[in-house]
Batch of 2 targets.
Target 1
Amino acid sequence: MSIALRGVTKRFDRHVALKDVSVDIESGSLTALVGPSGGGKSTLLRVIAGLERPDSGDVLIDGQTAVDVPVQDRGIGFVFQHYAAFKHMTVWENVAFGLRVRKMRRDAIRERVDHLLHLVQLEGLGGRYPSQLSGGQRQRMALARALAIKPEVLLLDEPFGALDAAVRAELRAWLRALHRDVHVTTIFVTHDQGEAMEIADRIVLINRGHVEQTGTPRELYERPANPFVMSFIGPITQLGDAFVRPHDIDVRNIPAESSLEAMVQRIVHLGFEVRVDLMLADGRGAWAQMTRDEVDQLELRLGQIVYVRSSRETRFHSDLPSHAVLGNAG
Ligand code: ADP
Ligand code: MG
């Protein structure tokens, strides 16, 4: 099912949580909704689900206006960050709950729940209680429960937010694989740009209630619409007025055409990667992301004078805030 928002505005008292937001979500896609906390991500999901009614604008589900369609008739599965399972019910019963409410036949319920537990890799754990699961297993149970009603749209609001990094990484890979299997239109909220880059087909970056940019992870990374997008999607530094990815800074011992003089301020070894803090002649700081081999070859040390230039840089026209020009200084 495709989803489209057309000029959606949502206020809470005087606070504008969404300002004239228009977004298109393709049927069967996996979209990440990213942005800083308080930017309006959850509100956007709740508007799609029908838990909030927009003050103006329209929500289209498969091209049909859905603003007056009640939550339970929108065919939407929802998973929140802090998923409240029924503690007194087993995992199996938790997954079956929505189907019992819908008065599905018992043997059909059994078949569907067993299949879902297999899908989320919890087969054999159906008899446990939620408290007997790990955090990652509980989130997978939440997903099985959301999928039980065969939703056409799956909305996930920071579903892995409360878990530690290793478990999150595992669930990310798992969600990607699950999406490949069930192909339900999925919108995934995260404040972690790395997570979004890794799993999404498309990213919608939302900030202060409006959409900064929509595109594939690569488009946002390589052709950011403005400095905010560029700094949100990956590391950023500045050489003069140009915004540069720190791995696109070329550091040398001898001057080259259009290079700038800089002094090495700090060298931080992070394993394969080395972070080099620089002070430019104009007094401004910058940093370069280099490999250990590059640093060894240049015999970099503190206080050394080096010559830097960017192999690729981005300039934004301040009079055209949503337009980026990608120059190539190399
Ligand atoms: P995000 O999910 O990106 O962190 P939210 O959509 O939760 O952001 O919130 C966007 C803004 O709207 C925030 O400033 C938040 O405080 C406000 N907000 C959200 N829900 C409500 C509500 N029910 N009542 C009042 N303000 C709200
Ligand atoms: Mg939120």
Target 2
Amino acid sequence: MIATATKLNHEVKDLSLAPLGKQRISWAGREMPVLKLIKERFAQEKPFAGIRLVACCHVTTETANLAIALKAGGADAVLIASNPLSTQDDVAASLVVDEGIPVFAIKGEDNATYHRHVHIALDHKPNIIIDDGSDVTATLIQERQHQIADLIGTTEETTTGIVRLQAMFKDGVLSFPAMNVNDADTKHFFDNRYGTGQSTLDGIIRATNILLAGKTIVVVGYGWCGKGTAMRAKGMGANVIVTEINPVKAIEAAMDGFQVMPMAEAATYGDMFITVTGNKHVIRGEHFDVMKDGAIVCNSGHFDIEIDLEALKGKSSEVRTVRPFTEEYVLKSGKSIVVLGEGRLINLAAAEGHPSAVMDMSFANQALACEYLVKNKGKLEPGLHSIPTELDQEIASLKLKAMGITIDTLTPEQISYMNSWTAGT
Ligand code: ADE
């Protein structure tokens, strides 16, 4: 049964899960005060009246709060999953039943279903696309060029999506504005660092229940996600090794107190490996060959391409599920390697993704970026656009207020000093 008045259907696992989803969405909302304020304003001002919107996000309690805020603002919104394993089925059910939002997302959906959902979303003829990884945007450009005329613009949530948008721009195919939500200060400093740091370890612990203290954990990549993961793993008592290809980030990791070395060497030491690079096959055949028996590998980067699982399969005589999201590959050599979450985002596959308090800022950016696109319809150049500093600062100020933290303001003397160049030694 469709419990909504929308034209569109839905595809969720089980609508009877809605009451649990509703309860959990409300719980997450308690930690999302900034988004709540934005929702209340949207409900008054209706900035999205007449706007068709597609959100391709991880279908979590936090995304539900975003979708509800956008709908309160008048958006005709459709939600699809941005990853086959990240959907929270109770949340998807509640959005359909309680909020009347069409959702197409089922945890564990196969790749064909995932792509079919992308097309169903595009059938909605979106004026705005909220993307997480740029799959909807890439499909629009590759397969639905004629629909670009309907589009006001897109917003992008994650580093991988930004890298893809930059490549689209370089290839001359990005013919509309795309808001770079990821690079807002109130997004990546918190979501990528503290969100990934906590949720990645949460996913690993939920999947394996192993003790991290005393283990050697190799963090592959020292971007914001790598920094957060390494920092939190150290905090749990692990010995952390970082691998990098960027010399500056490698120095940073070394000065943050981590051992830095190439993967060929780190592979021999690690009890556990966490990939957060956004790149392909950063752990591959030659690395599996030298790993310890029982080494655990997992990924917290956007796509499931960081670990070369095909190479691992080729070396294995058997793959067995030993716990949910935990598969043991028994190698022909006799040792075994454990893979978590099929090499997909472990924080969303085995846990619930970033905590609500950081998603509050990420999704405040998404909400305000959508409003900015509508307000500036037809005025923005094609290509990537930063979130305006005023919006970033507004989100930070609202978050501080919600946290009960006050800060200093500049005195008139300080303002004058900061604006002058004549006063020196
Ligand atoms: N990405 C990482 N964590 C997330 C969450 N909790 N909700 C939506 N997207 C996310």
